[in-house]
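Weekly sync, protein design subgroup
Attendees: M.S., D.O., the rotation student, P.L. (late)

Item 1: inverse folding check
M.S. brought a backbone from last month's batch and wanted to see whether the design step gives back something sensible before we order anything. D.O. pointed out we never logged the input encoding, so this time it goes straight into the notes. Structure tokens as presented (107 positions):
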């Protein structure tokens, strides 16, 4: 089984990637060269360059933020209610076909 994730750029480009479940959203993006997800710290919750906006239709399905993620999000630009660090979201079957938006400040 695989999980699909859709990354939308601010100019409307859609990057759809399919990966094994258990990878994070960030790992799915980086391994498929999706633009705008630099993930400088490699998922160690120390950079905020993996910032994404969760599409409103998927907000209720994404797991809650940890205190560490909330703290690191303060370093991201243009943070909104639906901001998340993509290295903290594991792609599970429940999140199959998730849609996230890449902040225009990141590419
Ligand atoms: S990759 Fe650095 S905080 Fe997510």
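Designed sequence read out in the meeting:
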């Amino acid at each position: 089984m695989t999980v699909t994730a859709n990354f939308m750029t601010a100019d409307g480009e859609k990057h759809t990637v399919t990966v094994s479940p258990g990878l994070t959203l960030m790992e799915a993006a980086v391994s498929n060269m999706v633009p705008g997800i630099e993930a400088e710290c490699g998922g160690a919750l120390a950079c905020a360059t993996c910032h994404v906006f969760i599409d409103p239709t998927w907000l209720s399905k994404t797991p809650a933020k940890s205190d560490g993620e909330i703290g690191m999000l303060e370093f991201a630009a243009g943070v909104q209610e639906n901001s998340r660090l993509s290295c903290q979201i594991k792609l599970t079957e429940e999140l199959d076909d998730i849609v996230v938006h890449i902040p225009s400040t990141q590419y």
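Discussion: The CA atoms of residues 40 and 47 lie 6 Å apart. Residues 26, 39-41, 43, 45-50, 72, 85, 87 surround FE2/S2 (inorganic) cluster (CB under 6 Å).
Action: P.L. to compare against the previous round before Friday.
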